[in-house]
Amino acid sequence: MNLRTPVKEARGLGSAKGGTHHWLMQRVSAIALLLLVLWFAFSIAINAGGGYEAARAWIASPITAGAVILLLAAAFYHAQLGLQVVLEDYVGNKAVQLAAVIAVKFLAVILALTGILAVLSIAFGG
Amino acid sequence: MPTDNRPLSPHLQIYRPQWTSGLSICHRLAGVVNTIGSLLVIYWLVSLASGPAAFERAQAILGSWPGLFVLFFFSLALFYHLCNGVRHLFWDAGKGFELDTAWRSGQAAVAGAVGLTVIVWIVALTTGGGG
Ligand code: HEM
């Protein structure tokens, strides 16, 4: 027989008391990406076919380099937040889920840094 | 404790798929595709930073028919996620929940995605890019 009151049963099972920040940052990064992705998609469509020297000159210009760095930071930040929710929804095993979320976060940082360093080396490499 | 008559989340096994629910899962799918697709952007930037030989190789791979095919679907997923993301932002502001509005904004998102994809590829192919 269970002598605990319904309230006692429910306590601790409600809101996680967090998550608003995660939700908000997904939206803030989405707004930044809206502009950056539109700009990048059309710019690369115009600039990708001009050959090695032209592509380097395009990436190396300060405005392009700055915008691409912002794009990479926003995209991998947003992707990592988003994939976390996807994993939390579909991976039932808590240990596997935690490992996968951590792996996604590490990979996102590594990939964003790799891309940003590539842009910087083009910008400063002459 | 009363447990009947409470609203429940849709239970996927008995949920009738609809236009709007299909678009919703496509947003998630496109988000995952975008993440994978952004690896191609990293690959392209790293190749460009690594010198002419690496860059030519990347251009040849991305400009091949399979490469262009993958890029085409990446661009479609990206533009769909972008347009449908705008829908999400309106919902987050509390607007657009009426059934017919949600239905039509979904049509607009698909049309916008297809339109932007076609335009960006016309731009790429006419300016000599495309890879
Ligand atoms: C182009 C502008 C973009 C906009 C406006 C946008 C918008 C959004 C929004 C509003 C959500 C939350 C959806 C929800 O709560 O169910 C979301 C989720 C997500 N986004 Fe984006 N996004 C953009 C670009 C990207 C990019 C570039 C990537 C990948 C690099 C990406 C990956 C994801 C992922 C993985 C999710 C999680 C999907 C889910 O939970 O169902 N997004 N996006």
Describe the structure.
The complex is a heterodimer of chains A (126) and B (131). Chain A has 126 residues and is mostly helical. Helix content of chain A is 81%, strand content 0%. Chain A has five helices and no strands. In chain A, helix 2 (20-47) packs across helix 4 (62-90), helix 3 (52-60) packs across helix 5 (94-124) and helix 4 runs antiparallel to helix 5. Helix content of chain B is 76%, strand content 0%. The chains are: A mainly alpha (126), B mainly alpha (131). Chain A binds chain B through residues 6, 9-10, 27, 30-31, 33-34, 37-38, 41-42, 44-50, 52, 55-56, 59, 68, 72, 75-76, 79, 82-83, 86, 111, 114-115, 117-119, 121-122, 125, and chain B through 1, 28, 31-32, 34-35, 38-39, 41-42, 44-46, 48-49, 52, 55-56, 59, 75, 78-79, 82, 85-86, 88-89, 92, 116, 120-121, 123-124, 127-131. The structure holds protoporphyrin IX containing FE. Protoporphyrin IX containing FE sits between chains A (26, 30, 33-34, 37, 75, 78-79, 82-83, 85-86) and B (27-28, 31-32, 34-35, 38, 81-82, 85, 88-89).
